[in-house]
Design a protein that fits this description.
- This protein is an all-alpha fold.
- 66% of the residues lie in helices and 0% in strands.
- The protein folds into two domains: 4-188, no CATH class; 221-300, N-utilizing Substance Protein B Homolog, Chain A (Orthogonal Bundle).
- It has helices spanning 4-19, 26-66, 73-76, 86-92, 95-103, 112-123, 126-133, 139-153, 158-167, 175-188, 205-220, 226-231, 243-258, 264-278, 283-300.
Length: 315
């Protein structure tokens, strides 16, 4: 669940906070790092389960309408395509997901007004009208509709961000990244249940160890990389380079030097991608240029030593 890229992003965020926080210890910052990753894990499941609570709200509305003393024809013969959505039902029936949501109290059942408002927002959308008007129903069509809710609808629903901010300070800024994880998970699912919706926090124990080691070494070696960055950015005043750019470059250099099993190109590509979203405009181009020079210098000085199959003497 927690990918290596997400680990890098979380470390970037926590180290940034640590460097600007007076009195915070490395131990406290590391504890915050793992707490933050756990909150991301919770938000993934809570946001995924939102479809289930929306469906149940719709079911309840239909039952209330049917129970009227004088129901209309529409009350007795509602369009049930949304509550019959095969992809949403698949989410609802996932035992591992249900168990995790129940254990961690992540259902939206306590936020009834929010679910109502989101449901009304959904049914007023062109996306919903187009979906409900189609007579055909298939798993792929249903899944596509759910993906569009996450990809297009939720991003513009401001009350979602307000609701999450009230529940956790770690959630409001994580929504877009969490939604990207959900979209990837849903795309990998098929009608036979291939793919996964619920994930453990770390897919492998090595990922947890990687997080600890990268965080600790980034802090420990932080000052060491000033000179090499300065030497390879001679046309730039180091004090005028965005602090986030410097931090990203230092994390990349640290990983290149301290993690012999990770190919240099993988490290370079990862931090350039991270720079696109977490630094200034065009930072990724600037960082790429500086790191190319840094890597050339480190190779010239024989400081890059990679170990493992296919890594020794990498070009």
């Amino acid at each position: 669940m927690i990918t290596r890229r997400l680990i890098r992003i979380k470390i970037l965020q926590i180290v940034f906070s640590y460097l600007f926080s007076e009195g915070k210890t490395v131990h406290a910052a590391e504890k915050e790092l793992f707490f933050s990753m756990n909150k991301f894990h919770e938000l993934y499941h809570k946001m995924l389960y939102l479809m289930v609570d929306l469906k149940r709200f719709a079911e309840n509305k239909i039952e209330i309408a049917r129970a009227k003393k004088a129901p209309t024809y529409e009350d007795l013969h509602p369009n049930t395509k949304f509550i019959d959505n095969l992809a949403i039902n698949q989410i609802e029936q996932n035992e591992a997901l249900n168990k995790y949501v129940s254990k961690n109290k992540l259902s939206w059942s306590q936020q009834k007004e929010f679910v109502r408002d989101l449901y009304n927002y959904l049914i007023e959308s062109d996306l919903y009208a187009d979906y409900m008007s189609r007579e055909s129903q298939s798993y792929e069509e249903d899944k596509k509709f759910v993906l569009r809710i996450y990809d297009a609808l939720l991003a513009d629903f401001e009350p979602l961000f307000q609701q999450l901010e009230e529940q956790s300070i770690y959630w409001n800024d994580e929504v877009e990244l969490v939604i990207s994880f959900i979209i990837r998970s849903l795309r990998e699912m098929d009608q036979e249940g291939q793919g996964e919706l619920h994930f453990p926090l770390f897919k492998k124990e090595e990922d947890k160890d990687f997080a600890k080691e990268l965080f600790r070494k980034t802090i420990r070696n932080y000052k060491e990389y000033d000179q090499i960055i300065e030497e390879n950015s001679r046309n730039w005043d180091l004090e005028r380079i965005a602090f986030m750019d410097i931090l990203i470059m230092k994390m990349a250099i640290n990983e290149i030097l301290e993690f012999p099993s990770i190919p240099t190109k993988v490290t370079l590509d990862e931090y350039i991608e991270i720079a696109k979203y977490y630094s200034t405009e065009k930072s990724n181009i600037f960082i790429n240029g500086i790191l190319d020079k840094v890597i050339a210098q480190l190779r010239s000085d024989n400081r890059i030593n990679k170990q493992g199959r296919g890594l020794i003497g990498e070009i």
